[in-house]
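Blinded run. Sample ID left blank on purpose so nobody reads anything into the name before looking at the predicted structure. Input follows.
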Amino acid sequence: MDSKKYNNTKLWIGISKAIISFVLLYLFIALGYSLKLQNYFQTFTENPYLVFILFVFAIGIISSILFMPVNIYTGFYLEHKYNLSNQTFFKYFIENVKSTLVGLVIGIPILLLFLFVINQFGDLWWLVFASVMFLISVVLSQLFPILIMPIFYKVIPLQDEELKTRISYLAKGAGIKVENVFSFNMSKNTKKANAAFTGLGKTKRIILGDTLLNDYTKDEIETVIAHELGHYKHKHIIKNLIFGTASSFLTFFLISILYKNSLSWFDFESINQIAALPLLSLWAMIIGLIQSPIGNILSRKYEYEADRYAIESTLKPKSFINTLNKLTDQNLGDREPHPFIEWFFYSHPSIKNRINAITDFVSEKNIEEVVHEKSIEIVS
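Blinded prediction complete.
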């Protein structure tokens, strides 16, 4: 099956890439190349901030060159092989350049801030930096829909008045006033379809890919939006913010302890020694490996809750199941991944488990399909 081959290929390439990255970074530190690179840049300048930026850039450039063939294969060739991409190679290149530039604009100040914090606050760097990163994440969440997303897509107000009315009605039922409903030209890059609830405060908005608007009925789109609003209704956004913040502070704390205690393994002298800083990434990878399935378990729980809300708020279980099936086919999702793969890697339940849960819920609540205010019996 194409979907299983596609997903397994991406999965094993991702796992292999992560393992190779870890091993190469470990060897880079253990064999003394990290210290040599620091010393090399210090022959040009003694400014620690400039040395640090040059140091990070050098590692980033080397990594990009090493993994460029793999990245092109997964990001361009594989998508075309399975007829999922609308990009020419030139457009693929341009999109990656834009992503890199946006990453640099955001990343360079954060890197400089990190070095300042670790220099000024010593062993308490983790507490200060975690606090700062929390504030930055809140600001970026507010800026993403109005400043960052328009760099990559043409975002325009939704033109379909009937659909806007339906969405407004659903949003009111969820206890939220959403005046900003937008579409974006997702089809410029991919044949996949998606929708999202994004932004915070005054910038919160619902965005719909044009692939979704073009290929799905209003009833089907309505169930997708209801699902997204279910996350709001069940306070998943706030819960994720709380969990993510607590997890972030704990992660930075653990990294700081492990980092400091492992400095002597590689003959480093202090926590702010530039050559030692790649050790932080090694420990982050290890901790992330442990945290990943925990976060995914919580995420899948939220997805089931949002699915149930979508059914209760629209009374369109058949339409929702049709939508999930169409999205899975269109996005070439794996309908039935290995249970361990789903448990460890999937932030969303597999389509098989989602439909089974929806069917059980509909049967339990005795819900019948409602379309245009006319009841039809749901076919199970």
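Unblinding after everyone has recorded impressions. Confidence is low (pLDDT under 50) at residues 373-380.
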